[in-house]
Amino acid sequence: MSDRKEFRDLAEPDEAHEAIASLDPSPAPETVPLREARGRVLAERVDARIDVPGFDRGSMDGYAVRARDTFGADEADPAVLEPVGAVHAGAEPDVTVEPGTCAEISTGAVMPDGADAVVMVERTSEVTGGDGDVDAVEARGPNSRPARSACSRRSG
């Protein structure tokens, strides 16, 4: 014999509709401390008053670039950029991206001055010289993405 339970005591349709109609799907909003908010939903939209974080950041590992330097780049004709340094998450950039240059960047790192996009590392290749140093980076657009904050304050 099966252990399956059978439910034979079913409510009549009118009774079921009445029970559902008596439910309040929109309870009155209430304010609770943050530590007690788990499992709840917001009663209304919340907009950031400030950008969080307060700086543009790399949205992926790759190279911080000036977007205009990679326009039109593709597999057959990559943009060749000179690397000027690296920026890692948690560190203040000490490089500036000038025309024709790029900076290695980690996800979440502050965008260096002059850069306005990131080319993901998968769309790049490093060109090394005889000394083993990286002399250039080939960026194969168009997969550059603009720098962004995680939450942007709402305008308007």
Tell me what the structure shows:
The protein is mainly beta and 156 residues long. It has one domain: Molybdopterin biosynthesis moeA protein, domain 3. Helix content is 6%, strand content 23%. Strands 5-6-2-3-1-4-7 form a 7-stranded mixed beta sheet, with no helix packed on it. The mean pLDDT is 84.
How is this structure best summarized?
The chain is mainly beta.
Task: Explain the layout of strands and helices.
Blueprint (H helix, E strand, L loop, with lengths): L12 H9 L40 E4 L13 E9 L13 E5 L11 E4 L3 E5 L5 E6 L4 E3 L10
Parallel strand pairs: 2-3
Antiparallel strand pairs: 1-3, 1-4, 2-6, 4-7, 5-6
Which sheet architecture does the biggest sheet show? Answer: 7 strands, mixed
What is the 3D form? Answer: elongated
Query: What class do helices, strands and sheet pairing give?
Result: mainly beta
**What number is the mean pLDDT?**
84
Number of distinct beta strands: 7
What CATH calls the topology is: Molybdopterin biosynthesis moeA protein, domain 3
Name a few traits of the molecule:
single chain, 156 residues, mainly beta, Molybdopterin biosynthesis moeA protein, domain 3, 7 strands, 6% helix
